[in-house]
Amino acid sequence: MDRNRVYYISALINDSDCLPQSPDGMPASLILASQSPRRKQLLRILGPSFDVISADIVETVSNTEDPEEVVVRLAREKAAVVSENHPDAVVIGADTIVVLDDEILGKPASRAEAISMLKLLSDRSHTVLTGVSLQHKTTGQNILFTESTRVEFGPLKESEIQAYLDTGSSFDKAGGYGIQDDGGALFVKGIDGDYFNVMGLPIYRLNLMLRKHFPSLFHYD
Q1: pLDDT for 114-151, tens place per residue?
Q2: Rg (Cα) of the chain, in Å, rounded?
Q3: What is the DSSP pairing of strand 188-192 with strand 141-153?
Q4: For a pLDDT cut of 90, what percent of the chain falls above it?
Q5: Domain membership flag for residue 1
Q6: What pLDDT, on a 0 to 100 scale, did the predictor assign at position 2?
Q7: How far is Cα 57 from Cα 80, in angstroms, rounded to an integer?
Q8: Residue of higher predicted confidence among 166 and 57
Q9: Residue 116's domain spans which residues?
Q10: What's the rounded Cα separation, in Å, for the pair 89 and 221?
Q11: What is the tens place of the pLDDT at every residue in 66-77?
Q12: CA gap 126, 130 in Å, rounded
């Protein structure tokens, strides 16, 4: 997987006079199309103020679909739902999955599924893949990119898995773990790539892309 891959850019704007503007001439607002507290926390690091609006979509995932296509599609769908009602805003959609042996591991639906996922990840390396969509409906811009991080787990004991599941942290995270959790962090032997991508938002790439394509977001103070 190419962690620096940019999939698609439409209506790319290079003229500063054409940067996304609200009707009153002020720079476009920024919206995070996610209720994830982790993504909200990470986006704050970049500086611009933003609103949070949940994107209500049905997240269908099939193991017959290429993992990169899955995260790009879901990120695009999330951003599009919110962008439809906020055409003057730059909307960020994101989706994160865990991939092991070309099999997609999403959020576990039950304790039994979480146990199964963590046992699969034990003492092995896997890929955390995030797709990001930056949409501005008024100008037709839709920038899509992916970021991948390799994560290596040490061997997990049954007691460690059970103790982690007892915290309740497993069930809202792809692959059944959070690298930022007290328990989940102890599973990780090493990583290759963006740590924050494993949390759900690759802020280094996101910062570069926002500043390149929507610099007006950073000039409103």
Answers
A1: 999 999 999 999 999 999 999 999 989 999 999 999 99
A2: 18
A3: antiparallel
A4: 66
A5: no
A6: 53
A7: 10
A8: 166
A9: 6-218
A10: 17
A11: 999 999 999 999
A12: 13
| Angle of the 111-121 helix axis to the 158-166 helix axis, nearest 10 | 140
For the chain, percent helix, then strand, then coil, each to nearest 5? 35, 25, 40
The secondary element (H helix, E strand) that includes residue 147 is strand 141-153
pTM of the prediction? Answer: 0.84
With tokens 């994560």, the residue in question is: 151
Which SS3 state, helix, strand or coil, does residue 8 take?
strand
Give the chain's count of helices (H) and strands (E): 7, 8
Question: Of these residues, 2, 17, 51, 95, which one is catalytic?
Answer: 95
Whether 29 maps to a domain, the answer reads yes
24 noted as active-site residue: no
CA proximity to 152, closest of 177, 188, 128: 188
Here the tokens at position 146 are 């992916």
**In 60-101, which residue ranges form alpha helices assigned H by DSSP?**
67-83
In residues, how long is the chain? 221
Q: Is 62 exposed, middle or buried (0-12, 13-18, 19+ CB in 10 A)?
A: exposed
Q: Are 133 and 92 in contact (CB under 8 A)?
A: yes
Structure tokens at 214: 């929507």
* 82-125 residue pLDDT tens: 999 999 999 999 999 999 998 999 889 999 999 999 999 999 99
CATH label of the domain that carries residue 72? 3.90.950.10
Token pair, residue 212, equals 């390149």
- Could you give the number of structural domains in the chain? 1
